[in-house]
Design goal:
112 residues; alpha/beta; 5 helices; 5 strands
Amino acid sequence: MTTRITRDELRDRIEAGTVTVVDALGGDYYARQHLPGAVALVEADVSDRAAELLPDRAATVVTYCSNPSCPNSGRVADRLTALGYTDVRKYAEGIEDWVGAGLPTESGVRAR
């Protein structure tokens, strides 16, 4: 089971640079807005791209999706754990909660 992380803890870790954030939505969702510093990694690409995007398997990785009912972040977290990542957490509230709290987001190019 993946450990959950609160919005405040995630915000603090992003600000401190002690976490890699994974946007499990990808595509247009990622291009429109994502958490600061997030990388786009959808379930279908985890096996092929995890080592490239997340080279340190012992580093803290937090996955997120749109909201608590979106299963993508849990699926990506489970796949990362199966690949040997040892500190995978899930921001279950998702980007809707983040934006609703008035926290900053970034936009970026469409993920491939």
